[in-house]
Amino acid sequence: MSPPPLHDPEESETDREQVLSILGEAIHDVRDRTKSRDVETAEDERMLIKWYRTLGTLSGQYRKLQKDTDIEEMEEDLELLRKVTDFDDRKRRR
């Protein structure tokens, strides 16, 4: 399976959304690999541990990127509240 393209031609999707999508797919792929893996030898066990480490790393990156998205959305909401509050203050002063 080839990796997904880094840039989707769909313009409505931001770079962050694209990366979240890629990370999400990778997390599902790794999770599927760990579920279907039979551990019969020490080498199998080492590989399974590596897959779990990869899963942890991908999950951490996904969480950080999602947290950044949440913070950005809260900043936008706060800015909107400030504008509305400022508008109301100016309206009352008249």
Structure description:
The chain has 94 residues and is mostly helical. Helices cover 78% and strands 0% of the residues. The chain has one domain (15-93). The protein has helices at 15-35, 42-93.
Gyration radius, rounded: 22 Å
Order of helices and strands: HH
Question: How many helical elements?
Answer: 2
What general outline do the C-alpha atoms trace?
A: rod-shaped
Helix content: over 70%
Average pLDDT reading: 86
Q: Runs with pLDDT <50, length 5+? A: none
Strand content: under 5%
Number of strands: 0
How many structural domains can be distinguished in the coordinates? 1
Measured between the Cα atoms of the first and last residue, the distance is 66 Å
Structural class estimated from helices and strands: mainly alpha
Outline the biggest β-sheet: none
Topology:
Layout: H1 15-35, H2 42-93
Highlighted features:
mainly alpha, 94 residues, 2 helices
Brief overview:
This is DUF8136 domain-containing protein. This protein has 94 residues and is mainly alpha-helical. The protein is built from 2 helices and no strands.
